[in-house]
Design brief:
- Keywords: ATP-binding, Magnesium, Metal-binding, Nucleotide-binding, Nucleotidyltransferase, RNA repair, RNA-binding, Transferase, tRNA processing.
- Helices cover about 55% and strands about 10% of the residues.
- It folds into four domains: about 1-155, Beta Polymerase, domain 2 (2-Layer Sandwich); about 155-240, Hydrophobic Seed Protein; about 280-420, no CATH class; about 425-470, no CATH class.
- It starts with a helix and ends with a helix.
- The chain is α+β, with helices and mostly antiparallel strands.
Length: about 475
């Protein structure tokens, strides 16, 4: 429940911030209005940490630059055509934008930039009422023309104007609704939700990069599952990530398997719990969270109904890895993220063979080698993938994974497992075998690597002897 007295006190603290106070005085002395707008005001009222300071003003860009230059150490006007001037004041980066009254053509997200004359008209054009509040400075005067405070109290997301108009102007706002639902723990007001369902296809005018950015921000919240549910239930996710809603497989009366969609959401939530436990205070691990969400997307394509009621998903790990790579590339994720996610999905079943029987040291080494830099994430994903309600089975799997991690740690200490490589490099292989660069060198290298994985450290002399012995036996 929002405590308004406490919230107003926090607004006072925000207005007293040294950067805010100095800017407020400078704009007032120049005869212009200035207000903090959007997220910082919302978060101050909610008692959440405030981060970036965004301002709006009656001043035009040239006037903004003239006012901030004497009190800032740097200025930039890369957003001048949109009315935005950036500056560094007292070591903090701020952005100050002229009141706007934009219009949209309905074909693109790019507005026709029009400067406005009042703070209220600027606020009405924003995405949600809880983000359409401002704090006039200097002083402490809350401006809330669209009922943002009431919606904060109610815990709902609602557009300041007709949602069909708002989303028609900028369809990306539909994705933001899901993100803010996760970020704030708010419900989406029914009329706003219905507009998302009806207008979801208009997302096609939004670039993949913008969609990817919002999805990344959603996954970086403390409870992304809430936002994923919004995307699936409204059908919006089908416009850019249909593999998730496809997880809601039908189950007939003769064949039974766990709900893959609900399982995937549980794995995502559990992966975040493990992530926080293992790396407290670290930034959200987006590749891990993507892998958790997508790890079973190969199941719909590989599902086979067997006689007797069994259901199989053979090779869904490999199929899912390919599907994830293709989808993440389409969404313009960077190469490192795409490679990490696809590798984690491809390897996410590997551990379950360990729980069925003790692995040799060779098998453990191969597990580490195949995981490479993704080993820590694979640890988390594999543990999160246990969602059984059978406590005995869950305990057995947890104990098995404790065991494999202990063995990896012991082998790492013993053999520097992180840098597994043959004890003879390619140049020495060529010298010993009397050959030049070519496929034979690679074949010899793989033989030595397998030897290293199977038997551990042999020493250079023994490795050379075994290599020569192997080479003599080749056709």
């Amino acid at each position: 429940m929002l405590n308004m007295a406490a919230g107003l006190a926090r607004l006072g603290d925000l207005a007293a911030h040294p950067v805010v106070a100095e800017l407020g005085r400078a704009f007032a002395d120049a005869g212009h209005d200035l207000a903090i707008v959007g997220g910082p005001v919302r978060d101050a009222l909610l008692g959440r940490p405030t981060h970036d300071l965004d301002f709006t003003t009656s001043a035009r860009p040239d006037d903004i630059l003239r006012i901030v230059t004497p009190i800032s150490t740097a200025q930039w006007d890369i957003g001048r055509e949109f009315g935005t001037i950036g500056a560094r004041v007292r070591g903090e980066q701020v952005e100050i934008t002229t009141f706007r009254a934009d219009s949209y053509d309905g074909a693109t997200r790019k507005p026709t930039v029009e400067f406005g004359d009042t703070l209220e008209s600027d606020l009405v054009r924003r995405d949600f009422t809880v983000n359409a509040m401002a704090l006039r400075v200097p002083g402490v005067k809350l401006v809330d023309p669209t009922g943002g405070v009431e919606d904060l109290v109610a815990g709902v997301l609602c557009t300041p104007i007709d949602p069909a108009v708002s989303f028609g102007d900028d369809p990306l706002r539909m994705l933001r609704a899901a993100r803010f639902s996760s970020q704030l723990g708010f419900d989406i007001e029914p009329r706003t939700r219905e507009a998302i369902e009806r207008l979801r296809a208009t997302l096609e005018i939004v670039s993949p990069e913008r969609i990817q950015g919002e999805l990344t921000r959603l996954l970086g919240t403390d409870d992304p599952v809430r936002g994923i549910r919004v995307l699936v239930e409204t059908g919006l996710i089908d416009e850019f990530l249909p593999e998730i809603s496809a997880l809601r497989l039908e189950v007939d009366e003769h064949h039974h398997h766990k709900d893959v969609y609900e399982h995937s959401l549980t794995v995502l939530a559990q992966a975040i719990e493990h992530e926080h436990a293992r790396r407290p205070g670290a930034d959200p691990d987006i590749p891990l969270r993507l892998a958790a969400l997508l790890h079973d997307i190969g199941k719909p394509r590989t599902r086979k109904l067997e006689p007797g009621g069994a259901v199989t998903f053979h090779h869904h790990d490999v199929v899912g890895a390919r599907m994830a790579r293709k989808r993440l590339q389409a969404l313009r994720f960077d190469g490192d993220t795409t490679a990490s996610v696809s590798k984690l999905i491809e390897l996410h079943l590997r551990f379950f063979g360990y729980s069925e029987g003790a692995w040799t040291d060779s098998a453990v080494r191969r597990y580490v080698r195949d995981a490479g830099d993704e080993l820590e994430r694979l640890h988390i994903l594999t543990r999160a993938d246990v969602t059984t309600r059978n406590r005995r089975k869950a305990a057995r799997l947890a104990q098995a994974y404790d065991d494999i991690e202990e063995r990896i740690a012991a082998l790492r200490e013993q053999e520097e497992l992180d840098a597994i490589r043959p004890e003879i490099d390619g140049n020495r292989i060529q010298e010993l075998l009397g050959i030049g660069p070519g496929p034979a060198v690679g074949k010899a290298y793989r033989f030595l690597l397998d030897l290293r994985l199977d038997e551990g450290v042999l020493g250079a002399d023994e490795a050379e002897r075994r290599l020569l012995e192997w080479w003599a036996a080749q056709d």
